[in-house]
Amino acid sequence: MNTVRRTDVRSQSLDLLRFPLALFVVAVHVFRPFPWLDDNAEAFPVVDWLFRFVNAFIVDQSVPVYFFIAGYVFFLGMDMSIKSYAGKLRRRCHSLLIPYLMWNTLAILYLMKVMLPGMQAVSEFADTQQFHLSLSNFIECYWDSSQGIIPHVNLNDNGIYPIDTPLWFVRDLMIMVLITPAIYALYKFPTPHAITKVILVFFTLVWAVRIPGLGHLSLLLEAFVFFSWGGFLSYHKRDMIVEFRRYSTTSFILYPLLALSILFLTPIWPQAMVYVKSINVIVGLFFFYNIAAWLVTKRHCRASSFLSSASFFIYCGHYIILDPVARRVFSITGTGGDMAVVSAYILTYIIIIGLLLGVYAMMHRYTPRLLRLFTGGRM
Q1: pTM
Q2: Does the first or last residue of the chain, that is N or C, have fewer Cβ atoms within 10 Å of its Cβ?
Q3: Is the pLDDT of residue 4 over 50?
Q4: What percent of the chain has pLDDT over 70?
């Protein structure tokens, strides 16, 4: 495959990270109990270990890295003049807002396909009486799907999500972009450099404690912590390679050790493992970037332009097709034992990735203008 033509190690490392991190997000959403399964998947020992492995090594690792990178890139060469900030906003409208609206609209249309003649027989959701088709409900789909066209009780008190759930990252990143003048003022505030660090550490600790019941604020805390740390590094013109390499050995040792402790100790000491997970999310930021930088530096691996550019498409599109793909795979494999259920989960994962890569390739060839709208120009 063609490789991205960016020569510096930092850029190549970030490009190399995009596709694996997107795969992590898909894995988090695939390898979990599905509420419509007749049998409890966690009752199967191998499946239970698979879920625990994903939780220990993968859950919550991708999005913080995305926020950190976004903050770092946003503040590169930033002087916060009106012209500079307006230019950043204009570019983010193309790269974030338009794809956000496109994907969530597509998710709404997919959900409402059941209202078309003859579609009830092939739809996973056929009870049209539950639709609340008011303008306010449609608008809520873009912010909080629990108040959308199919209102439901949001059982997750640690966040609210748009109808295309993974796009909470894009939504909250847009909020971070809007408040960057305040973040920039924090960096420029006429106080000792250490005080800014203390403020950022304070918010990091508040996020790490994971106070229950905060709702959307918990997601905004995560966005602010990692976006502002990335921006802080960029504002002070710190080289990511130099800064992260200082902790490469530590991260290579700590990350797997902490993940293994979460894997084995969560059933015994779940409350403590919540805080261990927070620590490992931060360690993972160093771990994954240092792995990518090492691969690029040693020339063991180079970023594929196709996979790197398809990452955002996979990130945004997988949740829409997850349920129908999983239902059809499980209807074929059945749930008669560990191997059947594990095979169904793995097949679901592979099929979703393969389908989206195929659709991306077809759109890249035949409808590039439409694809640019869905990817924010990431082609």
Answers
A1: 0.90
A2: N
A3: no
A4: 89
